[in-house]
Amino acid sequence: MQKADAIVVGGGPAGSTCAWKLREAGLDVLVLDRATFPRTKLCAGWVTPEALQDLELDPDDYPHGLVTFDELHLHWKVLTAKPATRQYSIRRYEFDDFLLRRAGARVLQHKVRQIRRDDGDYVIDGEFRSKYLVGAGGTRCPVYRALFSDRHPRGSGMQTATYEQEFAYDWKDPACHLWFFDAGLPGYAWYVPKADGYINVGLGGMAEQLKHKDGHLREYWQDFVSKLKRRGLVNYDDYDPKGYSYYIRDSVDAVSDRNAYLVGDAVGLATRDMCEGIGPAVRSSLLAAQSIVTGEPYSLAGISELSGDSFVSRLLERQFAGHQAGRML
Length: 329
Ligand SMILES: Cc1cc2nc3c(=O)[nH]c(=O)nc-3n(C[C@H](O)[C@H](O)[C@H](O)COP(=O)(O)OP(=O)(O)OC[C@H]3O[C@@H](n4cnc5c(N)ncnc54)[C@H](O)[C@@H]3O)c2cc1C
Fold this sequence. Notes:
Layout: E1 2-9, H1 13-24, E2 29-33, E3 46-47, H2 49-54, E4 67-76, E5 79-81, E6 84-89, H3 92-103, E7 106-109, E8 115-118, E9 121-124, E10 128-135, H4 142-148, E11 159-168, E12 176-180, E13 187-194, E14 198-206, H5 207-212, H6 217-230, E15 242-247, E16 256-257, E17 260-262, H7 278-294, H8 311-321
Helix pairs in contact: 1-3, 1-7
């Protein structure tokens, strides 16, 4: 039996951040991830300055590729707005591996299947034992399934469905483009240039609203990549997009029980306007680590539900999450 003070299930931004802070406080930490890092994570890879600040990461010190945007190109029907803002893009393949290495914890490739309590400890698959357990396994987190899903069911109206691809491409337009509600998509599509000749294109929408429209992302995808070609943004024919699902934030507060904590996508914390998940994953993990170290209660109250504070953010929130409160536009 391998023992640790804390076991973190999942080595994405949530898991690595929690492991990093627990290690800093002197705990013996073991991270279990089903994948071997570096691993592919479907994600547009947009990171905010706030998330980098929480990670204590100066963009100039990041050792991999990073693109800086000083404005975003937002499209809706025939309108285009270019609000000034500082944002970044990274490749998750590199970013997650960098953060996990930096955490300085023991990392083992292991797919967690079974979790039980024994004499105040958590025992995983009969092989690993710890006093503290952190569920950072994303949408399909086994800690969520074993310990929290009964009491904290995720709202089906908060589920997103996405389709995307990241590939080597000699892009010419260095701007980040977002298209909202094209052809009735209950979400948005993106074009995100990455460093070192990569690009990420994709689209996502609220799963339940898609079902109501009898729509499938595959059909929206065809329209979208044709548009990219027409506009001269991406002329590519070998697409092989993949799908993934995660949850935007419901009315959830802290999710912890005894010495078990849930963070990041395992809770479902992505913002209700832009579906941004990296920042909330990092922030929730800092708070969980603080709670473990100090014994203070774990609370998610300080994590913003929105990525922005403008009228547009509130409009998007109403469109994506508003039907929960019967406020669909
Ligand atoms: C297509 C798409 C685009 C997105 N774009 C953005 C964006 O541009 N910006 C943004 O901020 N957010 C974006 N998001 C959301 C963002 O990717 C997530 O919110 C973020 O990755 C959450 O981090 P996490 O650490 O909680 O989970 P994850 O990054 O999913 O990490 C979970 C880890 O747990 C591991 N794991 C799972 N099950 C087990 C198991 N049984 N045993 C052991 N390990 C396990 C996985 O291998 C994985 O490494 C996007 C999401 C998608 C799907």
